[in-house]
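Lab notebook page, bench 4
Experiment: in silico fold of construct C2
Operator: M.H.
Input chain length: 152 residues
Purpose: comparison with the prior construct
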Amino acid sequence: MESCEIHINESSLRIEDVVPYEDEKERASGCYIMSLVAVMIGLPMPIINLVATGIFYLMSRKGTFFVRWNSTQALISQVPLFVMNNILFWWTIRILFCFSDLSSTYIAYFITVNLYNIYDFVETVLSAVNTRKGKVHRWYLYGTITDKICKR
């Protein structure tokens, strides 16, 4: 079942032009909620969130444009988060078990990663809420990348 579009010209269709059905809103919002749940469950291991979001993306890639676009944006947003959290995780393990020194570089990186995690959490909640209402919540930078990847 495809969404009802405002504009007929499919080559110029943007995500903002899509009017999703109720089940599409629920599924698209679910990809963001699932991402939050995966973070809470797999907090010490950064790969869990990326894998869970990737699985949801694979299940949604044959879905409607609204669901595909949102699941793609959710997946894209998890890649830099995974990289940053992974580096922090292994750096912390090294400090704890290899008795490395706690440097100012580590502390600065720790603060930066935590601020980015807070940003990601807020954006994910906003995306889940707005998507459930049928609105598009574009993440800075990731929305543009999603437009390039997710074609009609």
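Observations: The CA atoms of residues 35 and 152 lie 24 Å apart. The mean pLDDT is 85.
Next step: discuss at group meeting.
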